[in-house]
Each structure stands twice: as C-alpha cells, then as structure tokens.
Design a protein that fits this description.
CATH architecture: Alpha-Beta Barrel
Radius of gyration: 19 Å
Number of helices: 10
Number of strands: 12
Bound molecules: S-adenosylmethionine, iron/sulfur cluster
Number of domains: 1
Strand content: 15-25%
Oligomer: single chain
C-alpha cells in the first residue's frame, strides 16, 4: 500500500493518454492545439499498461484515463481492457468530453470501463460553441444518452464554473432531477499562465468559491419551486465519489456536487498521483515538480520504475498552500 510522508494512502493514478483533443476549450487549450511532438516523446499504450501493472503491485488500485481527449487516442479500448484485467486494479474510469461516446460507449463497457465522467460547461448551444471554439452541444447530449443507455452508473457531468461566463447553473442542477445524472460544479482553476503566450485569459477573479455558489444556487432553486438542496451525508454517498460536497433535490434521481480545489482544501484527503502523456509523474496538480517515468520504463528494469514512483510519492506536499498557476496547461496535465 502506498502511504506518503503525510500519512495519506495513495492508490489512485490519473493518466493522461494524449495531449490532443477534438475540442479547444478556452480555459484549457490554445486554438491552434498543442505543439507537434515526435511519436516516441509520448508513452505507448504498452508502456502505460506496464506502468500500471507495476503501480498495481505498489498499491495503486484505481485508474482514471484522461487527456486531452482520451477517446481520440487510437487503441484506447484495448488499453481499457488491458488495465481492467491487470491484477490489483479494481476500477478503471474515464473523463471525456463525450463527443465520441456514441461510437465507443458499448465497447468501453465491454472492455471493463467502470465509470465515465462527461465534461459539459453550459447547456446553452451558442455558449457551448463559444467555450469549445467549435463544438456542437448535441454531440455531447448524444454522448450522455449513450453512456446512460450502455448502463454506466454513475454518470457524472462535470461543469467548470467561470464567473465571467455567467452560466445558467440552475439549468444544470435540473439535469439531476429526472435521470440518474450527477452534476458536479468544479471551481475554475487558473492553471497555465493566464498572462503567458497561451493567453487563456481567465484569472483568479473568475473562480467562484463554492460557498458562494451553493448559496446562490440554493436561493434560485427555492425561488423556482425546486425546494432546497439537501446535503447528502458521507454515509449516503456511493464509495469512491471523490472530494466533493454532495447535495440532492427532494425526489431527484441524481445529485448535485461541488468540487473546490482552491477555496476548500481537500489536500488532506488527496489520494492520487498524476501522469502526463509524456510520462511525467506529478505529485500535485498545482506544482510543476515532475518525475520522468518514461525513461525509467525504457530501461526495461521494473525496479527503476518503482524507484521513480516512490520518488514521486515522497514528493507529495502536505497541501498546495494556494501556490496555484502552473506552467503546463490543463490539457497537458489531464485535470
Ligand atoms: N477532454 C476530457 C474532458 O474534457 O473531460 C478530459 C481532459 S480535461 C483536461 C479534464 C477536466 O479538466 C475537464 O472536466 C475540464 O473541464 C477540466 N478543466 C480543464 N481546465 C480546467 C481549469 N482551468 N479549471 C478547472 N477545470 C478544468
Ligand atoms: Fe479538450 Fe477536455 Fe481540454 Fe476541453 S477540457 S479542450 S475537451 S481536453
């Protein structure tokens, strides 16, 4: 079992399988996409599978595949199959923009994917196209339908809330009423340098602290006759729901959650390592400290890989101390 120097059990690995994407969300990726890199600068699927097999022996039992957009990586279904059959791995989940789910949902489920989170930041078609630079919201709706129809449960919808976008959050919360959809509002994180060349342009003022968000959503829901958001206590939450505060409307099939990496530290509950598509292990989302596991994998020596994993684990800080802002963009880190 991997325990870090602050006594936390680290058993969750978030793997970015590509830094490419079929969308260009304003807060995540520049319009021109990511710079071209030679094929062997990225981990191959075989290398990812080998890393996971070694990590599983070190106590990692849960994997999340992310990106970029994980479904644009060729061979992703085979990777899911390999990982879900790896001894010691109990759960393989994915975070996706949903666009390719109608094509892949069935195959992913058959391959052993346990859960899927779909990112959607607005229900307004024009605003969706604006945020993603060219996306069509109907494609995401088809992805959500495909995930539910295939039997994924839970299906979570992740919405990044940005003050200057003025999204209709009540419309989102309503999604939880009639279908088993779990809407989670994610505090916008100023990742990447907002003043830098990529100029993603949003600053900390755009982050709405969760307390403010919950208060205003609750008031709007009551005014609209939906009643109050009722807190869901720890015991009522399905296992493995991560560091969110969960609420529910009376009689709703789904839930409404709030995730705040910034305003409400969940560092003490942190259970994860991240890995970029280039094979860099990141002990903390908000720190640019990285450990290269690609070279270790390419030595062919498992003990080298274990050494780098242990090094990354040992470098996990106790908390991020509000040192936010990173050199890498979210599309490179994987969220
Ligand atoms: N393409 C997939 C998707 O969009 O779900 C997976 C990768 S994306 C980087 C993972 C998550 O990070 C998404 O839910 C996205 O909204 C979120 N994200 C990206 N940039 C963010 C930011 N600056 N603050 C908060 N969340 C962010
Ligand atoms: Fe692509 Fe996901 Fe980033 Fe949007 S948030 S640009 S869908 S990687």
């Amino acid at each position: 079992m991997g325990i870090d120097q602050h006594g936390r059990t680290i058993d969750y690995l978030r793997i970015s399988v590509t830094d490419r994407c079929n969308l260009r969300c304003l807060y995540c990726m520049p319009e021109e996409g990511v710079a071209w890199r030679p094929h062997d600068a990225m981990l191959s699927l075989e290398e990812i599978a080998r890393l996971v097999a070694i990590a599983a022996k070190e106590g990692f039992s849960r994997i999340r595949l992310t990106g970029g957009e994980p479904l644009v990586r060729l061979g992703i279904v085979d990777l899911v199959r390999d990982l879900s059959q790896t001894p010691g791995i109990e759960r393989v989940a994915m975070t996706t923009n949903g666009i390719l789910l109608p094509r892949y949902a069935d195959a992913l489920r058959t391959a052993g994917l346990s859960r899927v989170n779909i990112s959607l930041d607005t229900l307004d078609p024009a605003q969706f196209t604006h945020i993603t630079r060219w996306g069509n919201i109907d494609d995401v709706y088809r992805g959500i339908d495909a995930a539910l129809k295939t039997g994924f449960d839970p299906v979570k919808i992740n919405a990044v809330v940005v003050r200057s976008l003025d999204q209709d959050l009540l419309a989102f919360a309503r999604l939880s009423l009639d279908r088993p959809l779990h809407v989670r509002f994610i505090e916008y994180m100023p990742v990447g340098d907002p003043q830098g060349e990529d100029g993603l342009g949003w600053t900390r003022a755009d982050t709405i602290p969760n307390e403010e968000l919950i208060r205003s959503l609750d008031a709007r829901a009551e005014a609209a006759g939906l009643g109050r958001l009722m807190p869901l206590h720890q015991a009522a939450r399905p296992e493995g729901w991560g560091p969110a505060q969960y609420y529910q409307f009376k009689g709703a099939q789904g839930t409404v959650g709030f995730i705040s990496a910034l305003s409400r530290h969940f560092c003490s509950e942190c259970n994860r390592l991240r890995m970029t598509a280039e094979g860099k292990l990141r002990p903390c989302l908000f720190s640019d400290q990285e450990f290269d596991v690609k070279d270790a994998l390419r030595t062919g020596d498992d003990s080298e890989v274990r050494r780098v994993l242990a090094e990354a684990l040992g470098a996990k800080p106790d908390e991020h101390h509000s040192q936010v802002g990173t050199e890498r963009l979210m599309s490179q880190i994987g969220g």
